[in-house]
Design a protein that fits this description.
There is one protein chain. With 476 residues, the protein is of the alpha/beta class. It has 16 helices and 15 strands. Strands 4-3-9-10 form a four-stranded parallel sheet, with helices on both faces. β11 and β12 form a beta hairpin. The longest helix is centred in the last third of the chain and has 27 residues. It binds adenosine monophosphate (AMP) and zinc ion. Zinc ion binds next to α7.
């Protein structure tokens, strides 16, 4: 089965057909870097990172672009408050974004363009829109002319009359129609500004994504994503601007995808409501893998309510996955036997069946929640096989390890193996365990307890089994 995606443009599930065979041009709206990002913002960063990985797994060459909004009102206010420049503020929070995103296992985009580094491209895009008759200059501002764009409202599925009802012309705005939006804003005292054909000023918010998307991905792209709050006005405006600039008749975007909100006490988590938990604070309290697990346990379009208990459950889920892998590694050292009577073919075909189900879930509108369920079926199959068979062949261990590894490459919820993280640490742990086993044999329980405690202080948990002592690292 090939990939089917729910396209917000048509409000239907559609087969995904890329513009160019084997390639995907994918743009995702990134953070405004005026502060740490919260776990609501983390939702699109995590889920669309997984969609990118899934597309790659399916054999596509994906070009993934995610911008940094580094100039807007929020940036200017915060920089004033901190008594630093907007550029200094952006540098600081881009670095903080990268730190948290890396900790959350979010792969860096192929291109992470910043608005302020694309002012010439933004100006060119605005010039094209003016030349094509869809924008006008008004006292140093430039506005998109909504009335000149009959398709306006086609993404958010609202007609102009309904949209006009909620719109106002704010004091200081020099536009003709309340729905017209700024492409360029004339300079105000104390604000950063750039030279332009319309005088000094700065870009509006929406135009940066149109300009940077077309620079790196072309005028017609495959996928554009973001949170559902971006559908209107941000994405509606991006589509109008991009299509008005190119004037090619081609749509700006073929598939629009929007994630649902992360809620807290059934309300949208947001900076303005003050009901947020930063990703930084969440990572200090919970393992980052648990946060990914939590996000991927829901369908990306559904709203999901955040609770500490939900994250604790996710942490327990991660621990179950990691335990399965460490049990498997331990058994591979102690119970491998190619002469066992184990029916390897049957096991491999069961794994294969589950793999088909996993792919079917991911291809069914990127249903990570169902795919995670299949991953647990795989874990259950491995665990029961380990329990029911004293000796197991090489093929069982290899296939199980490969399966877990390949699912983790897509979902990133199991994480690196302890033994891969630091070999010298592993050999030190193993020699302490060997010493403890010898101490127990010679009934030196004081030393044996001491070693257990030394390891516990380092986050290493021991479990004595008939086959020997197993160890694992507590999740941090
Ligand atoms: P911002 O930095 O505010 O532009 O937001 C970055 C991304 O986070 C955008 O795609 C937003 O739509 C998304 N977003 C913001 N709040 C939430 C939330 N509570 N749940 C899910 N996504 C959100
Ligand atoms: Zn955008």
């Amino acid at each position: 089965m090939s990939l089917i995606l729910f396209n917000d443009l048509t409000r239907k599930k559609e087969a995904f057909v890329p513009i160019q065979e084997g390639q995907v041009r994918f743009y995702s709206c990134g953070p405004t870097v005026y502060d740490y990002f919260h776990i609501g913002n983390a939702r699109p960063f995590i889920v669309f990172d997984v969609l990118r990985r899934w597309l790659e797994h399916e054999g596509y060459k994906v070009t993934f672009v995610q911008n940094f909004t580094d100039i807007d009102d929020k940036m200017i206010h915060r920089a004033h408050k901190e008594n630093i420049t907007v550029k200094e503020l952006a540098e600081r929070f881009i670095a903080e974004y990268n730190k948290d995103a890396d900790a959350l296992g979010i792969r860096r985009p192929d291109v992470a363009p910043r608005a302020t580094e694309h002012i010439p491209e933004i100006i060119k895009t605005i010039e094209k829109i003016i030349a094509n008759g869809h924008a006008y200059v008004s006292e140093g501002d430039v506005y998109f002319d909504i009335k000149s764009w009959p398709r306006y409202g086609s993404l958010c599925k609202q007609n102009l009359e309904d949209l006009e009802e909620g719109a106002r012309i704010e004091p200081g705005e020099k536009k003709k129609d309340p729905l017209d939006f700024a492409l360029w804003k004339a300079e105000k005292p104390g604000e950063p500004s750039w030279e332009s054909p319309w005088g000094k000023g700065r870009p509006g918010w929406h135009i940066e994504c149109s300009a940077m998307s077309s620079k790196y991905l072309g005028e017609n792209i495959d996928i554009h994503s973001g949170g559902v709050d971006l559908m209107f006005p941000h994405h509606e405006n991006e589509a109008a601007q991009s299509e008005a600039a190119s004037n090619s008749g081609k749509p700006f975007v073929n598939y629009w995808l929007h994630n649902g909100f992360l809620l807290i006490d059934n309300e949208k988590m947001s900076k303005s409501l003050g009901n947020f938990l930063t990703a930084r604070a969440a990572i200090e309290k919970f393992p980052p893998l648990a946060l990914r697990f939590f996000m991927l346990s829901a369908h990306y379009r559904s709203p999901v309510n955040f609770t500490p208990e939900g994250l604790e459950q996710a942490a327990a889920g991660v621990a179950r996955l990691r335990n399965c892998r460490s049990d498997l590694n331990f058994a591979a050292q102690t119970r491998k036997n190619n002469n066992s009577e184990f029916d390897l073919q049957k096991f491999l075909s069961e794994l294969d069946e589950l793999d088909k189900k996993f792919s079917a879930s991911m291809n069914d509108d990127f249903n990570t929640a169902a795919a995670m369920g299949i991953l647990f079926d795989v874990v259950h199959l491995i665990n029961t096989t380990l329990k029911e068979n004293e000796k197991l062949p090489e093929g069982f261990f290899q296939a199980s390890k490969d399966a877990l590894e390949s699912y983790d490459k897509i979902l990133g919820v199991i994480g690196p193996e302890e033994s891969a993280s630091d070999n010298s640490e592993v050999s030190e742990i193993e020699s302490l365990i060997a010493e403890r086993t010898a101490a127990r044999k010679s009934k030196n329980f004081a030393r044996s307890d001491e070693i257990r405690n030394i390891l516990k202080a380092r986050g290493i948990i021991l479990e004595d089994t008939p086959q020997g002592t197993k160890w694992k690292k507590e999740l941090v």
